[in-house]
Amino acid sequence: MNIARSAPAVTLTRSVSLPVEAAVRRTVLDRSIDWFARRRAFTLAFIVVYVLAVSILHEHVQSVVFAAMKAVTTNLWLTAVGWSFRLAFLLTTLILLRRVLAQQGGRAKLFYWASAVALTFAAVHWLSVNNNEYIHFFQYALLTIPVYALTGSFGQTAVWVTLGGAFDEAWQYGVLHAGWGIPYDFNDVIMNACGAGLGVVWICSMASMQTIARPTGAWIADQLNGAGWRTALLLLMTGLVLLATGWMALHEPKIGAKPLLSLSRMDPKPFWFFDATWGPKTFHILHPAEGVVLLALLLGWFSSLDRRWTTPLQRRAR
Q1: 3-class DSSP state for residue 15?
Q2: Which of 99, 175, 196, 271 has the most CB atoms less than 10 A away?
């Protein structure tokens, strides 16, 4: 295969002329991505089944967690979960450090990883009700591997994975907990997006990548031409139209006719909210506008990986 003809044109930085990382050592992650990429129909089906399983089995998994909490006491369980995930983050950071310090542009990758971890712990601190919420990050970080194998783009991967997490929250809000007085959970969607961010930064750091220098205009055009960003923008525009026409409301009215959709069946709450039946923490319930803005910022940030790194030419040509 003629690699030069089959691969998209990219502008390499002066210090990089060949995808050196790909030529020197292929990692388990490289082989996993290649395996999924060669089986596109299977990978798409796997992604769909994964998202549906996470959504539909939510209550079953939660019942198991609640039983474990009852068996060992809530405080002990949540403390153990919190420290287990902190140790997991520490271990993955040490592994990533060992991998990227010898790479060209390694410091930049470390900065992205540090920002992803900081955003993750900020979300836990301000947006979660208890330490069980840590599972969001790992669920959706794992999903980035097969999605990246199909898209070859960090930005499109982060968007598609976040949309999968948004579907999970919609399923809970509209089906599993349809009779509950709760909001559509933008808090959890943000945590899902942080998980997607962790996943794409991990892929960028641990898989073989080629350094590029993509101009800002070309990068933005590439992102907006992708199906992921277009789908997200279409959903946003649809929501705005529904709001403008009265078919959707931010809060479900207590009296009178109800709209087709509402983003919350709960009365507006103070900035900081506490309910002992939800969890032991005081946290902030995101307004839909806050959620949309935060999602745009998060996904825009993680999409910027596509400006500096791309899949090596050899793998792209297969």
Answers
A1: coil
A2: 196
Give residues with Cβ within 8 angstroms of 104, minimum separation 6: 15, 16, 20, 211
Q: Confirm whether 17 is domain-assigned.
A: no
Q: Distance between CA atoms of 39 and 44, rounded to whole angstroms? A: 9
Tell me if 5 is assigned to some domain. Answer: no
Q: Which two tokens stand for residue 154?
A: 């960090």
pLDDT tier at 5 (50, 70, 90 boundaries)? very low
SS3 breakdown of the chain: % helix, strand, coil, rounded to 5? Answer: 70, 5, 25
Q: Residue 17's CB: how many other CB atoms inside 10 A?
A: 8
Total number of domains constituting the chain: 1
DSSP letter at 173 equals I
Describe the crossing of helices 227-245 and 216-225 by its angle, rounded to 10 degrees.
70
- pLDDT one-digit tens code per residue, 59-105: 898 899 889 888 998 889 999 999 999 999 999 999 999 989 887 77
Average pLDDT, integer, range 115-128: 94
Domain span holding position 136: 24-317
Cα 64 from Cα 238, distance rounded (Å): 37
Under a CB-based contact definition with an 8 Å cutoff, are residues 288 and 186 in contact? yes
